[in-house]
Amino acid sequence: MSKQIWISPRGNKWVVHSSGSSRASKIVDSKADAFRIGRQQAINNNAELISQKRNGQINLKNSYGNDPMPPRDKD
Question: Where is the composition biased (Polar residues) (predicted)?
C-alpha cells in the first residue's frame, strides 16, 4: 500500500499528515481527535493508518485499502 496517513506527536499537540507531504493536514490537542480525523482520511483514501506514541514508537497500523483476501503467506 503506497498511501499512508500518520498520527504523530508534535510538542503538546497531535498531527495528522500524509506520507510524501511536507505539511500537516490537521493539528489538534488530543490523540483521540487526531485518530478520528486520521482514520476517516485513511478510509476515504484507501490508505494505511499509522499511529505513534508520544515517544515516537509506532503503536498501531491499520489498512483501509485493497488488502489481499485471504492474506498471502509470508514464506
Answer: 54-65
H helices of 1-75, where?
31-44
CB of 6 closer than 8 Å to CB of 52:
yes
Helix (H, G, I), strand (E, B) or coil at 71: coil
Q: What is the pTM of this model?
A: 0.82
Residue 47 lies in a domain: yes
Three-state secondary structure call for residue 8: strand
Q: Is residue 16 included in any domain, yes or no?
A: yes
pLDDT digits 0-9 by tens, 9-49: 999 999 999 998 889 999 999 999 999 999 999 999 999 99
- Total count of domains within the chain: 1
Task: Tell me which residue range forms the domain holding 15.
Answer: 4-63
